[in-house]
Hints:
By secondary structure, the chain is an alpha+beta fold. The protein has helices at residues 2-19, 39-45, 48-54, and strands at residues 74-78, 84-87, 91-92, 100-101, 109-114, 121-126, 132-137, 147-150, 155-159. It contains 3 helices and 9 strands; from the N terminus they run αααβββββββββ.
Amino acid sequence: MPRRNLLVALGSSLGAFFSGTSRAHAAAKAQDPTWQLSDAAWKQRLSPAAYQVLRREGTERPFSSPLNSEKRAGTFVCAGCALPLFSSKAKYESGTGWPSFWQPLPNAIATQVDFKLLVPRTEYHCQRCGGHQGHVFGDGPKPTGKRYCNNGVALVFKPG
């Protein structure tokens, strides 16, 4: 089990390293017209790291997010538009280096297949603003068996 987690983290890190800014894709189109902002508006609204992940589908370094160790009750919301995405009740320690959840909140995310690492992966975005959050894998815990592997910089934690 630890070997699998190490390989996942290493593979994702290498993918992030080799993808580079010049080959990054833009985020999904916002479903809500009020969140169809210009690139300049997103750059002004977000930190450089959040912009790279949310709007250019980048990946933060594993084990770099303080949200990995967040254990309080609350909600994880999109750092781009504050849409609630995950309940803290669905968070678990996957050992991969990114905040992980076994289930999103209803109507919170949209998915699409990407081939950036040559193999198909299911990428997910914020349903409202289209901001890239992470990827979903089929190796999570029960009851869903899913692991929503999220970039911490793409989230904000709201306690409560």
